[in-house]
Design goal:
The structure holds four protein chains of four kinds. Chain A is α+β, with helices and mostly antiparallel strands. Chain A is 16% helix and 20% strand. Chain A contains six helices and eleven strands. Chain A is elongated. Chain B is globular and about 75 Å long. Chain D has a single domain, classed as Cytochrome-c3 Hydrogenase, chain B (Orthogonal Bundle), CATH 1.10.645. Chain D contains 16 helices and eight strands. A three-stranded antiparallel β-sheet of chain D has the order 1-2-3. The longest helix of chain D is centred in the N-terminal third of the chain and has 29 residues. Classes of the chains: A alpha+beta, B mainly alpha, C alpha/beta, D alpha+beta. At the A-D interface, helix 1 and strand 6 of A face helix 3, helix 6, helix 7, helix 8 and helix 12 of D.
Chain lengths: 246, 386, 156, 380
């Protein structure tokens, strides 16, 4: 590649002792701008076109959300909180609430949402009169006109796939890691089954213990599981462990 | 007693007045005189209606008093026209600069003209802040003097042979003398503000002045030499008779233009208020309306610089082949605006020079150029070309 | 390998062999492409740095940083060569009860502010530093905020 | 002196002419950000100077110690508002080095292109600052206008203008979008034309050139010794660019020139950056061609373990402003034990005294604009 600017400049200073060329350049733009519009966008009246993947405030598709809490854990500014709301059938469910005042618009919640319920939205005019108004509840997070482009997919390629000569396979990050039971530690408390947002864990009886009580062990449905790690975090005896597929 | 119309002798010739203050016909005084005839006649009639047969009414309408009070109206008129033309200059710069920089410029009403009014109102509403450690008297007085001198010199520029304030034989010199006064006040003001930036800014204003003033005066003298007079009327009509002086004095015109930019303290010679290093230079401690007035004074000086250029090199209010024309004032102002457009262009196209560079420029470039220009003019005159 | 010669573009292998040859206390722990990792006892650091600067032509001290390993502290030097892009990482362990290291500001002026920063954040004193004052934190601070003993409010 | 009628020296001694300390900053038009430069003036000439930084110290490095690795990526964006992409890139490179993994080719090229977009945009920001520091608002607005097209590219690539949050540990966040593919070459072609206009405004104007030419000389040895890096260093004659001499992320597979000037004055430091923008355009063109050649289905992100094995790692790259380096001490958990950022400006600004002593106060902004100040990374 060639040096392009340094070959032309610096020129002899005596040759450029005038301000003629800059003046002509400016005059050219001036004459152009008499007929054309300047590039300024008159912001409140005109708005720039923004693409679908623009990262404004987070949006939520209420019916798609399973309340797994991945967004809460992925949020770097800790602005998301799970609160209890009534869904359309009047049932109490956990859904995220976003404090937009703290939101850094990083898009992590949309990226780490296993069911693509969280989206990014192109809404960026978020000023409110009080801090309380900046709390966006699950219903308020809904964005009219959510399109497919607003979902952020988190697709990865496994290093093992690349090593095996299959580099074009892309897997969703949430189809890979599955919790694994360490049988010795489990006490059969059913907590994992309770916290699982997609009911992928079923407690199965596996024989009877010394006192004659049934031994309950979780069995994980790998198809249903969204690798949200709720069971791992909430296990009182650390009997569940995420097995990372690499 | 009498009818109202008896008191108002509208349409009388002011020059027939024994106390007529000018040597020749003066349009703004004429307008002022007629206005006063209406106004004063009404007042006199009213007073006479209440106190019939008093002497105040007749005194009001006597030659001396009506001249005096017509002069007040005349002054207001002169100031108003000068002020509005300054606002137009301000608007022109903001709009043109905006377009040159690929933005829109002012947008408020009348293609942005009302932005000047809005800014004036805004600065007027601001609190009058006087910093605690300034030298209060000097601080207040110097800014008033800077503005006062600028207004004075703005009003003294004649717009045509019939629109003038003074018509002395040394009119040009008087204008230049008042024009050159402001840097002294700026220097004092920079000291009075008790601020290091202001102090440096004030020093720089003085430094700037000694660099451009001498070549500028030489150029003015050259023009006066060509026209054979310091009288502005004579200079303008001498150009109308022969040729605009920009043709024989093209070098001088360019030099004068540059000096005029420096005189008005505009980019690239705004070293006294260089915002990159001196925040706002000598204006740092002025806030609110004081700052607004200082800014206005800046544009007034810019407008005067352009007017001087028009008078000296562009034939003033005359047009080639036409002469005075029906409205010479408008011609004059339009010419000034065109010159000011080039000032805006220079402002958009250049940066700020350094203090030592402007001194070098003034004494090593402008000074020889102006002397060279003088020599050319002398050669032309001895050769009988002009 | 002549240890006293001046190398303008020393290769990684040359550095890895010269350094321990010249200074017995220097241990080269790892080498990669254009990277040399070594540990130096703190008594020798000034001599080693002078040698690296003068004889191996490492003109640039990229950075200098402290790490608090609780039981001891470390000062890590990253030195780079402008002729072939080789970097040397020197690790100097400092015991907690005697946090003193010789300053290298006289060799690389660029290390000046990095040493000041390391001092104010970790409390590692650089001897013979021209101006060891607080730089980023207020002058009134009397503690060293980046030590592990200084807990953030939210982290516990 | 001796034969003048007035004993000048004597008068000067009696006049008690003190030197004046002027404190420029933290709120000053020339300090682009919050920092202070104390200058000692003898008349208009600077005789001494002392930079003061730290107004923006957030304890960035300490704060990372309490966050998981992916959560530091948005934080790394906030290190520098103009060059956010390079810092995120650097952080990801460091963690990948600690993990000992290699990322896909396509991710490397995308990162490279994104980095160069970021470099152009950062240099334009610098050009704008130089314009205002030299008293021309036109340069400022024209550069900002051009910068806007590159910020739009960022939006099309990853959805955000400045805090991009785009590279990930193990690759990049998403594949290049259709809009990005469509617009990038167009934007680059358009930019090159517009840049010549800005160059005509500055380099063909005797005012700008005489303001920058011949002031604040730094020779090669001093530049290397005081730790000046980046374009400022190359303007002083040090022929070193990490992209070429210590290549990372496929910079060795594209063809570009590293501009070096020996003059060492303010103007040469300016010219290096202008040339770098042209070279960045070249790199972008080649990089986009390489991405196209790799095809749509090439992997762009590999899965990485969430825990980093204990050990240390460092990586460095060529920031728009100079050499930046991150040093990571991992202890086997999902949070870093210590993360150190070597910011180029932190060292460059420590040479402010050397650069500004001897120049006039009018030139202090013009000289220090060549550092390209950004306080987010300086104070961290």
């Amino acid at each position: 590649m060639a040096i392009r600017y340094l070959d032309k400049y610096p020129k002899n200073l005596a040759k450029s002792l005038w301000v003629m060329k800059p003046t002509i350049v400016v005059l050219k733009l001036f004459i152009k701008n008499i007929f054309h519009r300047p590039v300024t966008v008159l912001y409140p009246y005109e708005k720039e076109w923004i693409p679908d993947n623009y990262r404004g405030r987070p949006g939520l598709r209420f019916d798609k959300c399973v309340g797994c809490g991945m967004c809460v854990r992925a949020c770097p500014t800790a602005c998301i909180k799970l609160i209890e709301v009534e869904d359309d059938n009047g049932k109490a469910v956990m859904r995220p609430q976003v404090n937009v005042g703290r939101c850094a618009m990083c898009g992590y919640c949309a990226e780490y949402c296993p069911v693509d319920a969280m989206t990014v939205t192109p809404e960026y005019e978020l000023a409110e009169y009080s801090r309380y108004d900046l709390l966006y509840g699950p219903r308020r997070l809904h964005y009219e006109g959510t399109t497919e482009g607003m979902e952020v997919k988190c697709e990865v390629t496994l290093p093992s796939d690349i090593a095996n000569g299959n580099p074009e396979r892309r897997v969703s990050l949430f189809d890979l890691d599955r919790p694994e039971l360490i049988d010795k530690k489990c006490i059969g408390c059913k907590k994992c089954a309770k916290v699982c947002p997609v009911n992928a864990i079923e407690m199965v009886e596996k024989g009877v213990n010394d006192k004659g009580r049934p031994i309950l062990r979780p069995v994980i449905d790998n198809v249903k599981c969204i690798s949200c790690r709720n069971c791992v975090i909430d296990c009182p005896k650390d009997a569940l462990e995420i097995k990372e597929v690499l | 007693m009498g009818e109202l119309l008896d008191w108002i002798n509208f349409g009388s010739d002011p020059m027939a007045n024994a106390y007529y203050p000018f040597d020749s016909y003066n349009l703004p005084f004429d307008i002022g005189y007629q206005l006063w005839e209406i106004l004063g006649g009404t007042i006199a009639w009213l007073i006479d209606l209440i106190f019939p047969g008093n002497s105040v009414s007749t005194w009001l309408m006597c030659d001396a008093v009506s001249t005096l009070l017509a002069l007040v109206v005349f002054m207001l008129l002169i100031f108003l026209v000068a002020f509005v033309s300054t606002l137009i200059v301000l608007w022109e710069e903001r709009k043109c600069l905006g377009r040159m920089m690929d933005r829109r410029g002012t947008m408020v009403g009348m293609k942005g003209f009302l932005q000047c009014v809005a800014d004036g109102l805004k600065t007027f509403q601001k609190e009058n802040v006087v910093p605690a450690k300034v030298d209060k008297m000097t601080y207040m007085w110097t800014v008033s003097l800077v503005i006062g001198v600028s207004v004075l010199v703005l009003c003294m520029v004649p717009l045509s042979s019939r629109w003038f304030v003074v018509d002395y034989d040394t009119g040009l010199l008087i204008i230049m003398a008042f024009f050159a006064l402001a840097p002294f006040f700026i220097l004092v003001s920079g000291w009075a503000q008790n601020n290091k930036y202001s102090l440096i800014g004030g020093m720089r204003a003085a430094e700037l002045m000694i660099s451009y003033e001498v070549p500028m005066l030489i150029l003015i003298c050259t023009t006066a030499l060509m026209a054979g007079s310091f009288n502005i009327n004579d200079i303008v009509y001498a150009q109308a008779d022969s040729v605009w002086y920009i043709v024989p004095q093209i070098l001088g015109a360019i030099t004068f233009f540059t000096c005029a930019v420096a005189e008005a303290e505009r980019v690239p010679f705004d070293i006294a208020e260089a915002e990159a290093e001196l925040v706002e230079g000598w204006q740092t401690e002025y806030a609110g309306m004081k700052w607004g007035l200082v800014m206005l004074a800046d544009y007034m000086r810019g407008s005067v610089s352009c007017s001087m250029f028009v008078i000296l090199y562009l034939g003033g209010w005359t047009l080639p082949f036409i002469g005075d024309g029906p409205i010479p004032e408008i011609v004059f102002l339009l010419k000034a605006y065109v010159v000011f457009f080039f000032m805006s262009l220079i402002r958009a196209a250049t940066g700020r020079v350094r203090t030592d560079q402007i001194l070098n420029l003034g004494w090593k470039v402008f000074m020889p150029l102006s002397v060279f220009n003088l020599v050319i003019v002398l050669l032309l005159m001895t050769g009988g070309v002009i | 390998m002549d240890a006293d010669a001046v190398y303008q573009t020393p290769t990684v292998e040359e550095i890895a062999s010269i350094l321990p040859a010249k200074f017995a206390s220097v241990k080269v722990t790892k080498t990669e492409t254009r990277r040399v990792y070594a540990t130096v006892p703190r008594e020798d650091i000034f001599a080693v740095c002078t040698y690296i600067h003068d004889n191996l032509t490492f003109e640039h001290c990229t950075t200098l940083l402290g790490v608090d390993y609780v039981d001891h502290m470390s000062v890590v030097y990253h030195l780079s060569n402008y002729y072939n892009g080789v970097m040397i990482e020197l690790v100097v362990d400092v015991p907690v009860d005697d946090l003193h290291v010789e300053s290298v500001t006289s060799i690389w002026e660029g290390a000046n502010w990095h040493e000041r920063e390391t001092w104010e954040l970790f409390g590692i004193v650089f001897d013979n530093h021209p101006k060891l004052e607080r730089l980023l934190t207020p002058k009134t601070y009397e503690f060293f905020p980046f030590r592990k003993s200084y807990k953030l409010r939210g982290s516990e | 002196m001796s034969d003048s009628i007035v004993p000048v020296k004597e008068i000067e001694e009696k006049m008690d002419t003190d030197k004046m300390w002027v404190i420029m900053g933290p709120q000053h038009p020339f300090s682009h950000g919050l920092w202070t430069l104390k200058v000692q003036l003898d008349g208009e000439i600077v005789t001494d100077a002392e930079p003061i930084v730290g107004y923006l110290h957030r304890g960035w490095e300490k704060e990372t110690e309490s966050r998981e690795y992916p959560k530091i990526i948005p934080m790394a964006d906030r290190l520098c508002y103009c060059a956010s992409m390079t810092y995120t890139h650097l952080y990801c490179m460091t963690v990948e080095k600690a993990l000992g993994i290699d990322i896909p080719e396509k991710a490397k090229y995308i990162r490279m292109v994104a980095d160069e977009v970021c470099r152009i945009q950062s240099h334009l920001m610098w050009l704008a600052a130089v314009g205002t520091d030299l008293g021309s608002y036109t340069v400022f607005l024209w550069s900002m206008r051009e910068r806007e097209f590159f910020l739009d590219l960022n939006v099309k690539l990853c959805g955000a203008r400045m805090t991009t949050n785009y590279p990930r540990i193990g690759g990049v966040r998403n594949d290049t979008t259709e809009l990005f593919d469509r617009d990038i070459l167009r934007a680059v072609d358009r930019f090159e034309k517009a840049l010549w206009d800005i160059i005509a405004l500055i380099d063909d104007s005797s005012i700008f050139v005489s303001r920058m030419k011949g002031i604040s000389f730094i020779n090669r040895e001093t530049a290397a010794n005081i730790g000046l890096t980046g374009p400022a260093m190359r303007g002083c004659g040090v022929d070193f660019d990490i992209r070429r001499d210590d290549p990372y992320d496929n910079y060795d597979k594209v063809d570009f020139e590293v501009p070096v000037l020996k003059a060492g004055d303010s103007y040469s430091r300016y010219m290096i950056r202008i040339e770098e923008m042209f070279q960045s355009c070249e790199i972008i063109r080649q990089g986009v061609a390489k991405i196209k050649a790799l095809g749509k289905n090439a992997p762009y992100r590999v899965k990485t373990p969430s825990k980093v094995p204990a050990g240390t790692a460092f990586a460095r790259l060529e920031d728009p402003r100079g050499e930046s380096l991150m040093y990571l001490v991992a202890d086997g958990t999902d949070r870093p034990y210590r993360l150190k950022v070597r910011s180029p400006i932190f060292t460059n600004v420590s040479s402010a005294r050397l650069q500004s002593v001897g120049v006039r106060i009018a030139d202090v902004p013009a000289v220090l604009a060549q550092i390209d100040m950004c306080l987010g990374e300086t104070d961290r």
